[in-house]
Design a protein that fits this description.
Strands 1-2-3 form a 3-stranded parallel sheet. The protein has a two-stranded parallel sheet with strand order 4-5. By secondary structure, it is mainly α. The protein contains 13 helices and 5 strands. The longest helix is centred in the C-terminal third of the chain and has 30 residues. Bound molecules: tryptophanyl-5'AMP. Tryptophanyl-5'AMP binds next to strand 1, helix 1 and helix 7.
């Protein structure tokens, strides 16, 4: 079976962007792929984060991955720091990556450029991400649009390593959804919905209750010309709502637009659609919260399986580079 790998940072609550851009694909792939999904706690250390908060969010992230519909009977769910080969392979890959190519990463430029105190880990973050992927001989990486450039780097590093040291890594492909690969903030439709930006009204969390979802959608920023058409450049707020409605209904955004004349009607239907989309997540979350030990068990089993694969790949890479066995 082809292998799928993807990861999520436990640095906050999961939102609609994570769900639509990534998790829905993760769930779809678990049936017909050998799928590994990782809570990337080491990545969360690249920015200021309280230790107790990180520990709690890492556990909650695992619980939420089960709540969105991942089934530990068919896929592997684990925590990145439980598998020591992730930082070990990162070092090997850092010795092939260049400062120039890391400096070009737009996410680093957005978060770290110009700051004197920027952490080295924030700069080398994409190499850790490449290690995550390459350790598992990954074929496919389901991600949102914002991770595409990092994926390109992982491909480049794999190819460079294979060229220098002999065939060692599979070269992965990114898989982004056709619609919903970049869900925008409902209040600031020019920027993506994000865990790290404080925008409570603009961010729909996957565990929001129905009243909150309805309130946020109702207050979503649109525009004043009131013309119903899909035009992300000129009408980003409306385009975001049309895309979300497209995800909910399975139609295209243009087709959705042709079914409405008033923004208010679109918003009302979208709120209902999102409440239904996320209902099973809320329900599973309620059940799982009562059985935390089962989540720990999933993570123990997951780490053991991940470690088995990762240690073989790491050994192959170390040998190829000339490290004494
Ligand atoms: P993270 O934790 O920011 O996001 C997890 C996944 O959600 C997607 N996503 C979005 N999709 C659509 N619209 C949005 N507004 C939106 N916000 C987030 C992301 O694209 C991602 O797929 N560096 C990664 C984590 C990572 C990883 C990996 C991913 C570490 N190692 C290896 C894949 C493979 C990140 O910070 O994702």
């Amino acid at each position: 079976m082809p292998r799928v790998f993807s990861g999520v940072k436990p640095s906050g609550d999961f939102h609609l962007g994570n769900y639509i851009g990534a998790f829905r694909q993760w769930v779809a792939h678990q049936e017909d792929h050998d799928a590994l999904y990782c809570v990337v706690d080491l990545h969360a250390l690249t920015e200021e984060i309280d230790p107790e908060y990180l520990r709690r969010k890492t556990f909650e992230a695992a619980l939420n991955l089960l709540a969105v519909g991942l089934d530990p009977a068919v896929c592997t769910i684990f925590v990145q720091s439980h598998v020591p080969e992730h930082p070990r392979l990162t070092w090997l890959l850092e010795c092939s990556a260049s400062m120039g190519e890391l400096r070009r990463m737009t996410q680093f430029k957005a978060k770290g450029s110009g700051q004197e105190a920027v952490r080295v880990g924030l700069f080398t973050y994409p190499v850790l991400m490449a290690a995550d992927i390459l350790l598992y001989d990954t074929d496919l990486v389901p991600v949102g649009e914002d991770q595409r450039q990092h994926l390109e780097l992982a491909r480049e590093l794999a190819q460079r390593f294979n060229h220098r040291y002999g065939a060692t890594f599979s070269v992965p492909q990114a898989a982004t959804p056709g619609v919903g690969a970049r869900v925008m903030d409902l209040q600031h439709p020019e920027r993506k919905m994000s865990k790290s930006v404080d925008s409570p009204l603009g961010t729909v969390d996957v565990l929001d209750d129905p009243a909150d979802i309805a309130r946020k959608v109702k207050k979503a920023v649109t525009d004043t010309d009131a013309q119903m058409r899909y035009d992300p450049g000129a009408k980003p707020g409306l385009a975001n709502l049309l895309e979300l409605m497209a995800v909910v209904t399975g139609k295209g955004p243009d087709e959705v637009a042709s079914g409405y004349t008033r923004y208010g009607d679109l918003k009302a239907d979208l709120a209902d659609g999102l409440v239904e989309l996320l209902r099973p997540v809320r329900e599973r979350h309620r059940t799982l919260s009562a059985e935390p030990e089962s989540v720990h068990e999933v993570l123990r089993t997951g780490a053991a399986r991940a470690h088995e694969i990762a240690s073989a790949t790491y050994a192959r890479a170390a040998r190829a580079m000339g490290l004494l066995a």
